Amino acid sequence: MVKGTAAQLDHDEKKLINYRSSLDRNPWWAQTIIYIILLLLSLITLLPLVNVLSISLSEADAIYRNPMMLIPHQFTIEAFEYIFSTRILLTSFGVSVFATVIGTLLNLIFTITGGYALSKTQIPGYKYWMWLIIFPMLFGAGLIPMYILLKNLHLIDSIWVLVVTGLVAPFYLILMRNFFWSIPEELEECARMEGASDFRILLHVVIPLSKPAIATVGLFYAVGHWNDLFTGLFFINDNTKWPLQVLLRSIIIDMNALNTRSVGALTNDAGRVIVAGENIKAATIIFSIVPILMVYPFLQKYFVKGILLGSVKG
């Protein structure tokens, strides 16, 4: 009786496995439809970027005739030559690079050290520190208290305000802490038995094993700094210290920052206008997008792995 029951259970288990495997195997036409839909969605998301790129590489009269172009008409690079010859744009680019590089470096230093400390639940006042970190995620002080604080710190109209504000994001700090929890404690114990200090363990054991999480959090911080508009808009009045995004806003909305009304003087030998305000706006948008896009391919292999491993424990 027992053998018959066991055989029946084994048979039912095999039938269940075969049924699940048949569900996992989609027919070829279903896979084809899925790939076509994903391809169409990808193309739709790329169309605005392709349109802006085509406008930046086209002459002014071609843009006026056909503003929704996908390939450049009457190809020219005069718009890019113009923006590269404009000192204020290059200055803003340098400010954004400074804020992104230095800001991301400081973000990672404080986030890694803070996350490693919080991964040790035995530290005094652990719950107090966690509540102190989680509370700002739920409630913000507001713009006016932030302005008063930065003014008392003499950071208004300073490029350091782009770095100091948001020095540690609570969500990324918790994400890093969760990733450190996934590292076996035996590795740290072995290093401590060899006489390594906590700082040396962090530097030589924990950080090398945490490259996926560090790369992911670093990418988030870098994109945040590069796309930061409101910090420069609210706390920097000197246009020579504007980051690139604030200058881009001024170009698109005000059309005064680069004196684009004088762009009509850029004509060819026949006296035809080849660069106008639309060219300048499109070229500046492309100029602001390309640098951060170049970072993604180098960190892509760490991106998904870092997110998954950092969310194992909560």
TrEMBL record:
<keyword id="KW-0472">Membrane</keyword>
<keyword id="KW-1003">Cell membrane</keyword>
<keyword id="KW-1133">Transmembrane helix</keyword>
<feature type="transmembrane region" description="Helical">
    <location>
        <begin position="160"/>
        <end position="180"/>
    </location>
</feature>
<dbReference type="InterPro" id="IPR035906">
    <property type="entry name" value="MetI-like_sf"/>
</dbReference>
<feature type="transmembrane region" description="Helical">
    <location>
        <begin position="128"/>
        <end position="148"/>
    </location>
</feature>
<keyword id="KW-0812">Transmembrane</keyword>
<feature type="domain" description="ABC transmembrane type-1">
    <location>
        <begin position="93"/>
        <end position="291"/>
    </location>
</feature>
<feature type="transmembrane region" description="Helical">
    <location>
        <begin position="28"/>
        <end position="50"/>
    </location>
</feature>
<feature type="transmembrane region" description="Helical">
    <location>
        <begin position="201"/>
        <end position="223"/>
    </location>
</feature>
<protein>
    <submittedName>
        <fullName>Aldouronate transport system permease protein</fullName>
    </submittedName>
</protein>
<comment type="similarity">
    <text>Belongs to the binding-protein-dependent transport system permease family.</text>
</comment>
<feature type="transmembrane region" description="Helical">
    <location>
        <begin position="88"/>
        <end position="116"/>
    </location>
</feature>
<dbReference type="InterPro" id="IPR000515">
    <property type="entry name" value="MetI-like"/>
</dbReference>
<dbReference type="Pfam" id="PF00528">
    <property type="entry name" value="BPD_transp_1"/>
</dbReference>
<feature type="transmembrane region" description="Helical">
    <location>
        <begin position="280"/>
        <end position="299"/>
    </location>
</feature>
<keyword id="KW-0813">Transport</keyword>
